[in-house]
Design a protein that fits this description.
The chain is α/β, with parallel strands linked by helices and 173 residues long. It has helices spanning 7-17, 26-40, 77-87, 101-109, 117-128, 139-143, 149-156, and strands at 3-6, 44-48, 66-70, 95-97, 113-115.
């Protein structure tokens, strides 16, 4: 399910939530969210007040997991988020992360899933402390046994490759 996150609301909750996060810049928190979305297999849109900071790279890896939006000088994050909630075509699947009453009211009216910033911080912290996902299975498993190794395996299991009717009839050399 896609997430819509109130950027500074979550940022302030995060730096209060955990001392390790107190030195984070908002873009660092975005990087944590991006990794979290990658683990969850989800997407997040993070909305911040103001304009994009000048002179700093704003790319976050993995890039395809989050989208960062700045409200611009003439608007605010609340207005942008309310618009995104109103325009969402599947609001019951949308998870809105904010502790702001105005945003929560808009989300409730569209029957979005609502999560407080502190609750999301708890979940983010708990998931970040889990072991990383186990590595993918080796390619060797899908490519078959390399040349020369097949005979060793057949011998290990007591199968004679020369004997008719053995499993080796099914194996092409």
């Amino acid at each position: 399910m896609p997430y819509l996150i109130d950027g500074y609301n979550l940022y302030h909750a995060a730096i209060k939530h955990n001392e390790e996060w107190s030195h984070f810049a908002p873009i660092t928190l975005c990087a944590w969210i991006a990794r979290d979305m990658h683990i969850l297999g989800d997407l997040a849109t993070i909305v911040f007040d103001g304009t994009k900071p000048q002179g700093r790279a704003e790319t976050v890896e993995p890039e395809r997991t989050i989208k960062i939006i700045y409200s611009g000088p003439q608007s605010d994050a609340d207005t942008v988020m309310e618009t995104l909630i109103r325009k969402n075509t599947a609001p019951r699947r949308l998870i809105v992360v904010s502790s702001d009453n105005k945003i929560r009211k808009s989300a409730r009216q569209r029957r979005c899933i609502i999560m407080g910033a502190k609750n999301y911080c708890d979940d983010l912290w708990n998931r970040s402390r889990l072991k990383p996902p186990s590595p993918k299975e080796p390619r060797k498993k899908y490519r078959g046994v390399p040349d020369g190794e097949l005979v060793q395996w057949l011998e290990m299991f007591g199968i004679d490759p020369e004997e008719p009717g053995d499993i080796t009839d099914l194996i092409k050399f």
